[in-house]
Amino acid sequence: MLPSLSKEDLRDLLPGPEHFFRRRTIWRLTHDENETCVDRVPLMGLGISALFPPPTFLVSLLFLLLLLLLCPNPSPSPVFSPPSFPSQSPQPQHGASRTVQLPSPLYVLYTDTELEQSRSTFSEKQRAGEEGDYVLSKDLRCRLIRNTVTSMISIKRAAGDDFNYPCSRELTVMAKRLIEYYPMLRDRSQTSRAEWETVKKQLLKRVQNVTTPKKKQGSTPSRKRPRSLSFPSSHETSTDETDESTASTLILERSPPSRYSAPEAEQLCETESPQTQARHYKTLQAMYKTKARPNKMDVAQLLDLEIQARRAFIDSDVTKEQDRPSTILKAYPCFGELDHLMDELRRVLNQGNSHFLTELKTRWGTFCERAQFYGVFKKLMRPPQLDKVKHSIAMMKALPEMFPSPMAPPKKLRHASEAVLHVLESAEDPNTFLQTRPLSSPVVIICETNCILAIGTMPVLIFPKEDIHESVMYLMACYYTFHLTYPKCIATLLSVVQTEVLLDAIHDRDMTTSYKKAMADWKKFI
Questions:
Q1: Residue spans with biased composition (Basic residues) (predicted)?
Q2: Together in a domain, 17 and 110
């Protein structure tokens, strides 16, 4: 029965590739056939039927099952091996693997689909003898160099090596391996001493252009010791305190030494390099050229990083004081926004304190509450009104009289408070007022619906009329940000605000008689 079964019958009885060797063993036992021959030959007369009488179908089937149980799955014998055909994609040459083994660490060659396709194209041209005409594109070459260096640096740092960048020897080995894996990179020019020299130069140039990462210090890093303001007298050689200070200039180099501990001072003295700060400034300029209103957080971070170079530029006194605000606003248009203007005040006074502006507004509110009663006590103000805007205007008009200066205002100004704010009349134009104003100091112009903060003849920004009670802080931010001089007619008032609200010290020579008298009366009242 078994010799009469064909290969198809055995395949039906024992289907699947897992029974292939069992089917072959049964076929060899029941047929005298040479398996090395590809063509099938006729069956011979010898077989298993010579050992047994002609069995029935049931006996043959039982014998087949017994044979399967006794015959384990034999191991494959290498009788026939199909011919191997070469793959279409080129294999790396001898020794051109995708890893570069050095004593430490193990680098990996960069590759992608386009680079592998380029290798395939080069291999085809090489078989045709046209490899000399094939050149790797500039984009692929730059991508290969850039990603190779990035991979080497990442592996180098992950290995915990003391040197974060690959050395010249490692770049040489990598360049040799690159031209083996990518033979189209070989430099066959006569001027080159070696085929891998050009690749090594490109790798070395890329390594030199990599910027060393710095430790993250937060959104508002403390980079420099805060500086206080001082007001030198116009008569610096005079020691008589009866000579009043007629002008006050901001000096940003002094600060109380006992305000910070040693670790804090060391941390605050960390600064960016001039080259890095120049890149920050270019980034800031590009943001305002491409976007009308850039993200405030991004701008604030760049201003934090670039503060040293910016303050050196502002404090250099290269331009006249009248032209300084326009020059600074042209270089830093961000200061035309109220948030960045107040944030610059924080950087100058106390950059490390992120809650400085909140604390400043609280101190100003407390100062105004006391000044209300102080003005009523000196008969300069009426009791508080219900209208907050009108009450704030009355407060600002009375402040120069609460803390008077010995110098009278210019003749065109009717009152010393005109150096702080001006309320437009119904038919008055703000531009006309600014052009005829005798002072170039910051001023708040109150219109019917809003308020304008201007410096000299130039409007800087507009803010709601409901925020008029904080306008004195806006004026102080302008004096600090643009490094301006206090007007003589309100120098005492601004000095009091500087020491009592901003908590910033002034120079000893600026503690004039009028300032001392005003502070004595104020301390006595509160």
A1: 213-227
A2: no
